[in-house]
Write a structure and sequence with these properties.
By secondary structure, the protein is mainly β. The chain folds into two domains: 2-98, Ribosomal Protein L25, Chain P (Beta Barrel), CATH 2.40.240.10; 104-183, Beta Complex (RNA Polymerase Alpha Subunit, Chain A, domain 2). Helix content is 13%, strand content 34%. The protein is built from four helices and 14 strands. The strands form four sheets. Strands 1-3-2-6-5-4 form a six-stranded mixed beta barrel. It is elongated.
């Protein structure tokens, strides 16, 4: 999906940035291989947050700069947040060169329930959260679905080569790398047998010797 967004050129660079943010304005910059110099811009915070929440960093944006008739194809290349409020503090836009293929990392979206988990009690182990791809801007995708309903037995796995992507998208991640696998449930620990309980030995107690005099003999000698 392509998003449209408007921005104004920020000429007063020495103006207090914090003051701009308090007015709901976010400073940003546009850069790219076809630009002789970076373009400093000012953006509406509410509209920018809406686009970022929907598009993330892997969606194409048609950026309309103040005073320009044509839009610029850009991507959100880097974004900074305020530490306390977590609101957007600054954003970098990368202007795409016409005909240039981009390398991006769409997230993996795991859908469905694995029968091996639901019916057999298997453990689902996810190894990847995103993969790297290369494509033209028009072929960009924000996420890739991973169908878990095909995983029916212990040991079943889905590798990168099993992922379904558009024909014009090139996968750069190792195709043999595991995305998700089903592991068998852990065996319950067998209870250890109870140890035989022995009567405690009384310290200092001596067994009577055959040569020791009996109590009656001791009394007779007195």
């Amino acid at each position: 999906m392509i998003y449209d967004f408007q921005a104004t050129i920020r000429k007063e660079l020495k103006k207090n940035v914090q003051s701009l943010r308090e007015q709901g304005i976010v400073p940003g910059v546009v850069y790219g291989p076809e630009l002789k110099e970076n373009i400093n811009v000012a953006l509406d915070l509410v509209k920018l947050e809406k686009i970022f929440n929907e598009a993330g960093e892997n969606s194409l944006i048609n950026l309309q700069l103040e005073g320009e008739k044509e839009t610029r194809e850009v991507l959100i290349k880097d974004i900074n947040f305020e530490p306390v409020t977590h609101r957007i503090a600054h954003v970098d836009f990368y202007q795409i060169k016409k005909g240039e293929k981009l390398e991006i990392e769409p997230e993996l979206s795991f859908v469905g329930i694995a029968p091996a988990v639901k019916e057999l009690g298997g453990i689902l182990i996810k190894s990847l959260a995103k993969i790297e791809i290369r494509c033209l801007p028009k072929d960009m995708i924000s996420h890739i679905e991973v169908d878990l309903t095909t995983m029916k037995n212990f040991g079943d796995k889905i590798s990168v080569r099993d992922l379904k992507v558009p024909a014009d998208v090139e996968i750069l991640t190792d195709l043999d790398e595991t995305v998700v696998v089903i592991a068998a449930p852990r065996e319950e620990e067998v209870a250890a047998p109870k140890a035989e309980v022995k009567e405690p030995e009384v310290v200092g107690k001596k067994e009577a010797s055959a040569d020791a005099p009996a109590e009656g003999d001791k009394a007779a000698k007195k």
